[in-house]
Amino acid sequence: MVTLPGEDSATTYHLRPPGGGPAWSAPADGTTLRPVPAQITHATLMPGRDAVYDPRARQGSVPVEFRFEDGSTYEGTLVLTSVELERLYAQTSRLLDAHENALGGAS
Known about the structure:
The chain is α+β, with helices and mostly antiparallel strands. It has one helix and six strands, in the order E-E-E-E-E-E-H.
């Protein structure tokens, strides 16, 4: 931080990156400052909720819960086209085969 608002009648924050670089400014009212949202770490299937296929839209939807790095969660839906459903089926089939092999062939 180079200059704070109110010092020498500054109406903006005057900033310079750590280690040097060109200075820049932001209005003192904070209008250009936005909170940085927590990032999603992963999504899990919603317990007790089932996937639904919409034949008119030719899409499937799977209820999921998004989990964020700060521990918060958000309910959402994974929407998949027919092609994506086929791809997901092939991938999950391979995962199930790998799981079965890891258990020594027992289901």
